């Protein structure tokens, strides 16, 4: 599944703290869609591919990891791929 560019942070649960604005809502929606996609749509597991609008959002990347999803995401120069 490929997701498009929106900018900002996103997440769910513990990764959702401090996330505001429409861009964050779009990322939360993308994670919600990924939660239902494989089983509900009878799709085999595929890696998630996202541009830097999603890849720069630490909470989005954490959301993918929390779900155990394989992913390839673009990040802008200077983005820390593994914070902490």
Describe the overall structure.
By secondary structure, this protein is mainly alpha-helical. It has one domain. 39% of the residues lie in helices and 10% in strands. The protein contains three helices and three strands. A three-stranded parallel β-sheet has the order 1-2-3. It starts with a strand and ends in an 11-residue tail after the last strand. About 19% of the residues have low confidence.
Compact description:
With 84 residues, this protein is mainly alpha-helical. Helices cover 39% and strands 10% of the residues.
SSE inventory with pairings:
Layout: E1 2-3, H1 21-40, E2 48-50, H2 52-55, H3 58-66, E3 71-73
Parallel strand pairs: 1-2, 2-3
Q: Termini distance?
A: 28 Å
Which structural category fits the helices and strands?
Answer: mainly alpha
Q: Overall pLDDT, averaged?
A: 75
**Cα shape:** globular
Tally of separate domains = 1
Order of SSEs? EHEHHE
Region (Disordered): 1-23
Biased composition (Gly residues): 1-11
Domain Transposase IS701-like DDE: 26-77
Organism: Haloactinomyces albus
């Amino acid at each position: 599944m490929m997701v498009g560019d929106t900018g900002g942070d996103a997440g769910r649960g513990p990764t959702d703290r401090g996330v505001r604005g429409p861009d964050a809502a779009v990322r939360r929606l993308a994670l919600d869609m990924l939660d239902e996609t494989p089983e509900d749509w009878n799709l085999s597991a595929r890696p998630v591919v996202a541009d830097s609008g999603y890849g720069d959002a630490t909470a989005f990347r954490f959301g993918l990891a929390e779900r155990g999803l394989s992913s390839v995401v673009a990040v802008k120069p200077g983005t820390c791929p593994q914070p902490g």
